[in-house]
């Protein structure tokens, strides 16, 4: 399957996906890395890996639909089958999301449906959560919503701050995102309404740091 990864920043999740797709048995091949930010370090990661890049800067467009039309043109030009959002910081319209129904993944740093939106680690700490984590889901029009494929749980430790907790979660993001992309590209995901079946079993798969 031909994959495009959309990034806005450092792209550590992109790097995990690049490393996964470089494996000889990978059913997914990244054919494009696209960013709305010309300075995104993720673009350099792509270039180092010999992957085509594109910049579609949202500030160059009058409105969201025309911005998304430019993104669609880049995706269509490369016959992309699957889109992965990896730290892509622009909200996509229902129209765009609809084009990629059950073909677009996102990684979110919380145990969805808890803590949709931003600053998830700070909020979990504030609430005194003893457990936190990350989720890979199929993208639906509602923000950080959609059928869950894989989640990883991490403990919140007494001396955690947002940075230490985010770092612990990020390690798990780099495990579950490549695994979820492999499953989707291999055709191991089926969706029944808002429930994803992973290898025929109701999702999400739940991982911990030790398994
Ligand atoms: C991570 O917390 C990820 O969950 C969120 O953006 C942060 C940085 O991701 N999407 P990356 O290093 O740019 O992949």
UniProtKB/TrEMBL annotation:
Keyword Transferase set for record: yes
Gene: purN
Xref: NCBIfam families: PurN
Domain of life: Bacteria
Formyl transferase N-terminal domain ranges (all copies): 1-181
Protein name: Phosphoribosylglycinamide formyltransferase
Annotated site location: Raises pKa of active site His: 144
InterPro entries recorded: Formyl_transf_N, Formyl_transf_N_sf, GART
Gene Ontology biological process terms from the UniProt entry: 'de novo' IMP biosynthetic process
Organism encoding this protein: Hwanghaeella grinnelliae
EC number: 2.1.2.2
Binding locations of (6R)-10-formyltetrahydrofolate: 64, 106
């Amino acid at each position: 399957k031909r994959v495009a990864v959309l990034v806005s920043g450092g792209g550590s999740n992109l790097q995990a996906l690049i490393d996964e797709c470089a494996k000889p048995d990978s059913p997914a091949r990244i054919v494009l890395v696209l960013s709305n930010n010309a300075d995104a370090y993720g673009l350099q990661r792509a270039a180092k890996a010999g992957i085509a890049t594109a910049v579609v800067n949202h500030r160059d467009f009058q409105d969201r639909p025309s911005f998304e039309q430019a993104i669609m043109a880049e995706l269509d030009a490369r016959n992309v089958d699957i889109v992965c959002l990896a730290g892509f910081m622009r909200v996509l319209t229902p129209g765009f999301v609809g084009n990629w129904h059950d073909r677009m993944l996102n990684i979110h740093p919380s145990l969805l449906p808890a803590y949709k939106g931003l600053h998830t680690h700070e909020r979990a700490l504030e609430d005194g959560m003893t457990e936190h984590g990350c989720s890979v889901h199929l993208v639906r029009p509602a923000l950080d919503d959609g059928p869950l494929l894989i989640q990883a749980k991490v403990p919140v430790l007494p001396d955690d701050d947002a940075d230490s907790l985010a770092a612990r979660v990020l390690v798990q993001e780099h495990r579950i995102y490549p695994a979820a992309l492999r499953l989707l590209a291999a055709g191991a995901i089926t969706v029944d309404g808002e429930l994803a079946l992973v290898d025929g079993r109701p999702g999400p798969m739940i991982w911990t740091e030790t398994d």
